[in-house]
Amino acid sequence: MRLSQYFMPILRDDPKEAEIVSHKLMLRCGMIRQEAAGCYSWLPLGFRVLKKIEQIVREEQNRAGAIEVLMPTIQPADLWRKSGRYDAYGKEMLRIKDRHDRDMLFGPTNEEMITDIFRQGVKSYKDLPRNLYHIQWKFRDEVRPRFGVMRGREFLMKDAYSFDLTREAGQHSYNKMFVSYLKTFARMGLKAVPMRAETGPIGGKDSHEFLILAETGESGVFFDRAFLDMDWTAFDIDYDDVGAVARVVEDFTSKYAATDEKHDAAEFDRRVPEAARVTGRGIEVGHIFFFGTKYSEPMGAVVQGPDGKMVPVESGSYGIGVSRLVGGIIEASHDEAGIIWPEAVAPFKVGLINLKAGDADTDAACETIYKALEAKGVEVLYDDRDERPGGKFATMDLIGLPWQVIIGPRGLKDGIAEVKNRKTGERENVALATLLERF
Ligand code: ATP
Ligand code: MG
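A: This is the predicted complex of the input protein with magnesium ion.
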């Protein structure tokens, strides 16, 4: 992509409406634009990041055996009357009437709808287990939408729903999602610590929230420092190996970790040596619940068991805040100059800077490199604008692409490009002849 032809409305100054760094940076980089409180347009740069995150989530859900579907954003109220949640959900639910005066709503979550889909499609234990998920916009009329996409009203969520015959089988489905979450977040460069959680209005038995550490997080967190030293990369296990999956869960739940809602100070002191007690703040990026027959019973989602008897299925639901993650990753990875994207979610991998646009040799060299990178499938944003180098450097640092390739007349004379690593700040002279091999 050529910057001269792109749409990236950069703001020079910090926008006044933004309180936290991720919100400021997203506005300054022209990633989003607010349309109403808690509702955002995703501009090209932000949209690319959102899609990258969504794709990682999708790949890891698929790998763990979940199957993708897509349910509508608008749901009939009658479904929610069956589960008894229509009245219980309160003002967070956006209620709508259609032209025939029927009660509809903009879905805040999908337990009812998926249970109904499942009920009509599966009749026998032989068709279990199943896990269905979708990645779809949700609406929750939050009292205080704030912090940009972190607490929006309209936000993108991945929600998966598991269906099993027995409690034990359901536990394995829960464990698979638990492990896939560790892996999903690790691929984005995050350590999302699983913490025992309240089940809230969705209700249930077993529940964990996944939180990343950030001063601006809305939850207080208390955990054992040992978490941070664990191996956050070794999740390449066989998801059908019940024991292996359970062992990872065991490992990641054996140490103390709790949000303020579940924190027990006495237990914390007893279980964690003083030097290892971490207290701070965190951002909830994922939440998993096991709720058994809470929805299958009232909604009649029953299957025929091996003994011929009809039994309600055991279920869980598993959410990831896809749009919240865009802000969350920035909170976890930035410096004074701007965003530092982990490579896996970066909007482009390389920022190519032409130091002297208009100079025939520099333009030609940049053009060659740009085309060669594109041909190789490397995502590159080429700053071909006729602007001062200082401004170009500042913009590239601000938008945080992992690599900058800097081309100017002086380097070209010696046949070299300068390559800068945004994260470490290291600069290196690389011979033009070997530049492509770097990416
Ligand atoms: P919170 O406690 O932050 O209000 P929640 O517990 O109500 O969230 P869940 O029902 O667990 O949310 O939703 C699953 C995930 O969706 C959350 O872990 C979070 O990452 C994301 N999410 C929830 N509410 C919002 C929101 N208003 N804006 C952006 N993401 C959200
Ligand atoms: Mg939650």
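The mean pLDDT is 95. The two ends are 17 Å apart (CA to CA).
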